[in-house]
Amino acid sequence: PPPPPPPAAAKAQRRLERKQERASELEQLLPTLSNEGYTLVFTDGSSELVPGIGRVAGYGIFSSDLLSISAYVPVHLRQTNNTAELFAVLRAIQLLPPGRYAFCSDSSYVILGASGAARRWKLRGWTGSSGPVSNVEIWEQLLSELSQPDKTIKWVKVPSHVTVEGNNEADRLADLGRLSSPLHPILHTPSTFSDFSAPLVTPLKKARFAATSTHDLSEVSRQITFQSPAAVRFSSVTANDILRSLDLEPL
Q: Which InterPro entries does this one have (predicted)?
């Protein structure tokens, strides 16, 4: 018989099999949630370590007939992946109209905290099993939003690096949001700050709500208003769009 695989390879194979099993379970769970009246909302965060600058983060939110958002994490916040993942959930809840939602995220940090651990952390003075909890400001806002009676939310853990259509789109939007940050070197020119202080907006069909959002950029704050009856689609510029705007050759 062939020799057994090395322990590390066997462990990696087991992890892959568990992810595939979870993805298969999701294929059955997500349609069931939709049939029960839950709107699926996919969120994701993206963070990159940029030499000479530090971390730069963005987030994405995708719900097929409600939201498509690509934006950077406000520059006064930590620019970590966990911050981006958490901020995406907070913004989605703030923007969504009353209803029943299934929030789908590949972040164990977000799913664990939002489904109950954050309330325990707060009771312990924002201390977790491994020490002080980060992103307390965002968690406080999220707990406040979750206490409102107008939204019913289920939390769904999506395995990372497994193909789930809505999650893939949220991932793509998060990467674009990170690229649109004024902290990113491609935008590290003061003359471009006012031009790209907020995501671009284009019409999104079938949207059913109106809301107002403020997107912070250091001392610059721009207000974006969702137009009713049609809401707007948040989309981000690409690297080549930005380069062209600066009269530089595209990549």
A: RNase_H (IPR050092), RNaseH-like_sf (IPR012337), RNaseH_domain (IPR002156), RNaseH_sf (IPR036397)
Render the burial of 174-190: b for 16+ CB within 10 Å, e for the rest.
bbbbbbbbbbbebbeee
CB 61 within 8 A of CB 170: yes
- Please give the tally of structural domains in the chain: 1
pLDDT in tens, 233-248: 333 444 555 445 455 5
Q: Residue 48 is part of a domain; what is its CATH number?
A: 3.30.420.10
Q: Which of 169, 167, 198 is nearest to 181 (CA)?
A: 198
Predicted structure pTM score: 0.72
| Residue 154 placed within a domain | yes
Per-residue pLDDT tens over the stretch 37-68: 999 999 999 999 998 889 999 999 999 888 99
d(CA 126, CA 140): 10
